[in-house]
Amino acid sequence: MVGCQQCTMEEDPRENYTPKFWRKTLTAPAPFADESSCQCQAPHERLTIAQARLGTPVDRPVRVYADGIFDLFHSGHARALMQAKTLFPNSYLLVGVCSDDLTHKFKGFTVMNEAERYEALRHCRYVDEVIRDAPWTLTPEFLEKHKIDFVAHDDIPYSSAGSDDVYKHIKEAGMFVPTQRTEGISTSDIITRIVRDYDVYARRNLQRGYTAKELNVSFINEKKYRFQNQVDKMKEKVKNVEERSKEFVNRVEEKSHDLIQKWEEKSREFIGNFLELFGPDGAWKQMFQERSSRMLQALSPKQSPVSSPTRSRSPSRSPSPTFSWLPIKTSPPSSPKAASASISSMSEGDEDEK
Fold this sequence. Notes:
Catalytic activity: phosphocholine + CTP + H(+) = CDP-choline + diphosphate
InterPro entries: CCT, Cyt_trans-like, Pcy1-like, Rossmann-like_a/b/a_fold
Pfam families: CTP_transf_like
GO molecular function: nucleotidyltransferase activity
Keywords: Coiled coil, Lipid biosynthesis, Lipid metabolism, Nucleotidyltransferase, Phospholipid biosynthesis, Phospholipid metabolism, Transferase
Oligomer: single chain
Number of helices: 12
Helix content: 40-55%
């Protein structure tokens, strides 16, 4: 059990004169009003808006009340409660949530049941206390019981339960403080989206394992939805294959460009080396000429002398005729005419010796 914030006031040791009310809702869910251990019997003097905006009185917070259905709790609900919480410098926010019976009677069927809606409000950071089974129309007895100073709601007249505006008597009593609605988000808008895209969400839940019976889907629609899911899967696979093929083609193009560039560089290098080796002034030509000259020198023999040297004779002996035993080596004729000329000269020499 927890006590009301008004009876658990403590001074903040970090500030000299500013009282601080320790909010347990920052670390735990907001308590329910009927589970609170404190039924405060202290006299409650209602404040004016001017007094509340000045932050007085210092001995207690300003008790602000906001009510609603809060079905499919969303950011619009949270923003409205944030405005109600920050209307005054020091405020305590009580939130009333209507029961299922009352809501179905005056407004219509809800998606979430009352227990789920209560819990959603308990875990909102701006809420200090939750009042279950709140009345549809606020009575003086209810306001006095919960010691409510002001009621926060948007200023649009709320016609219901045979009244043009259920907050009319609150406004006349000077206890009404308006808040602003959040455009573009509401419970009705969310339900409209679901109804509009019903097939999409039915297929989604079938794919996630819900049965056709749980979704209240006929046999034919179930088969249709499952077939559509298979078609979507095939489309997704085809899309993935197309994306992968595009990536593969891009990679091949990049690699082909690199290969062509490298091939061009290598081909230019090869051609340059070939020309340097086998070109008109290349190293191969010089080497060939050197080797061919060496081969010619090796193949052509050196010319020997025509007459052999005479022997030196001693003065005591008579001279003896000299004989040349070694054949005379002549160089081979360079042409047929030279060969015939040499033969004729040799014959003439023989005739002279005779």
